[in-house]
Each structure stands twice: as C-alpha cells, then as structure tokens.
Give the backbone structure.
Amino acid sequence: MPARSSRPTKTDSVSAITPALFRFLAELARHNQREWFNENKDRYIAEVRDPLLGFVSAVAPKLAAISPHIVADPRPSGGSLLRVYRDTRFSRDKTPYKTNAAVWFRVGADKDTEGPGYYLHLEPGRVFMAAGMWHPSSEPLRLVREAIVKDAPGWKRATRVGLSQDESTLKRPPRGFPADHPLIDDIKRTSFTSGESFTERQADDTGFPTMFVNACRSRAPLVRFLAKAVGVPF
C-alpha cells in the first residue's frame, strides 16, 4: 500500500480509539473462546465497540462532505461497525471471534446493492484503510472492467493515487477483453482497491479521524469511478 500520510497540524474532536482497544484484541487472539469473551464482554463494549461507534459518529459529517452517499451508521448492530463474530459455517477454523476490529462505510443507502466504499482495519501491529471494491461478484466485476475499457483516461485519473499491489489477478485476460489492451493488467484484477497504512500510535492520536478522512478524500476519484461503473450514486 502507499506510504502513510503525514500527521495533521491541528487535532479535531478527540478520537475515542485508545491503546486499550489493541490490548483487548491481543488478549482475544490468545483466548479466542466463548467463555472468555462472555466474561470480558463488558470490556469489549467499553474498549472496542463504543469507541469505534464514537469514531463513526466523528467522521460522519467529514465523509458527507466528500459524498452525501457515504453511509456512516453508528448503530451498534447493523451499522458501519462490522461484527466481531466469525461465520464459521464453511471454515475449518472454528474460533468464534475475529481478532481485529473493522468499520465499513459503504456508498449508497441500499445495503443489498454491491458497490464501493471505505474500510478501516485495526488489529495489533496492523492498522490500515482501504477504498474501492474488494472481490466484487461477477456482474459488478464485469461492469467495472467494461468501464475501464470505455473510459481509459477517466480510469487513469481515478487511479493516480495508486492501486494496492497485493490484490489477486487473473493469469489470463478475462473472456471478451483483448490481451493487448494498454490497461490489461488492471482489467485482470479481481479487486480494485487503494489503501494507506497507519501505526497504532496514529490510530490513538486525537487527529486520527482527520487522517482517515484525508486518506478517503484522496481516493474519492477511484470510489466515484467504481460507483458510476456499477450504477451507485456518489
């Protein structure tokens, strides 16, 4: 991912994220069992859930200035904060809880419509934001690829900030797309994301909401292009 941005010169409203969030997640990684989590659920609420709901509320008006269609929902269930519970139905790993905390700001009010958005990931030793679409299903994937072919100059402008280099790509061009297209490497992508890394210390800083929103704003052209490609307002 591209290098992280510099710290802002002014702090905004106090970030609710503290080192306690990372300590709790580190302990959860060592004790990933329902009994331990139930005994420490009040800590999870106080040190992880509620601080991140406060973060969502803090960045909501700033994200709305980028686009009124970015959804920043601070509800504890069904909102922007992703669930701590893992879906273990089809996984060999039966540990019940995620050992990271994450927030997803989707673009568009319809939760059932697949589109781009902004993501924040926090775990001990790994903090980053990402913008765009990660592993879209076949139809939106086709629409994005067709949009790249139809508007190559617009795609180049949208990706000036740089695309993530650790995403999976096809070995061969997808069916119906010419192998000699100048943007074939992007067309072969199965995700279209751009990200920025932070440190735990930055995440704990009072200015982190501004850092995060600045990273989102710099990637707005990518999100706007993707939203238009799949028919989502931005």
In short: Residues 1-14 have pLDDT under 50 and may be disordered.
